[in-house]
Amino acid sequence: MNSITLKGQTITLSEQLIKSQSLSTEDVATILGLHARKLALYEELETAEDFSLEALGRELREVEYALQRAWKFPQSAKYHRFWEAPRCACPKMDNAERYPSDLAIVNGNCPLHGEIGYE
Ligand SMILES: [Zn+2]
Fold first, then answer.
1. How far is the CA of 97 from the centre of ligand 1 (A)?
2. At 86, is the secondary structure helix, strand, or coil?
3. pLDDT for 52-92, tens place per residue?
């Protein structure tokens, strides 16, 4: 079972990538659990009070790192599509165009990333 459906959104993991990374059934379960956590955080962000957005942004970043560890990839923020998070005010097109990049473009007024940056 390499997919989960949550709130009508289905996430399917690449069979090929699971093989090439030699992932176990437990690894796959961990990854699916992290995706569930990420979707829950996205949902939480939609309605969260302003004061908790920065903490949720940090938590989301930890989930992204945990996903990279679970996939047995090196941990690197350059592969996080952080601008896709709800309430993020960082430039979406500029970041998407240069993805993956060591030079993330962060809006200083972004409630998630403005204070802490993204790396
Ligand atoms: Zn942002």
1. 16
2. coil
3. 999 999 999 999 999 999 999 999 999 999 999 999 999 99
Question: Residue 115 domain-assigned?
Answer: no
Centroid of ligand 1 to alpha carbon of 45 (angstroms): 12
Q: Which domain holds residue 15?
A: 3-76
pTM of the predicted model as reported, rounded to 2 decimal places = 0.92
CB atoms within 10 A of CB 117: 11
CA 75 to ligand 1 center in whole angstroms: 20
C-beta pairs of 33-41 under 8 Å, 24+ apart in sequence: 34/63, 34/66, 34/67, 34/70, 35/4, 35/11, 35/67, 36/4, 36/6, 37/63, 38/63, 38/64, 38/67, 39/6, 39/7, 39/9, 39/11, 41/85
Q: Distance, CA 67 to ligand 1 centroid (Å)? A: 19
In a domain, 21, yes or no: yes
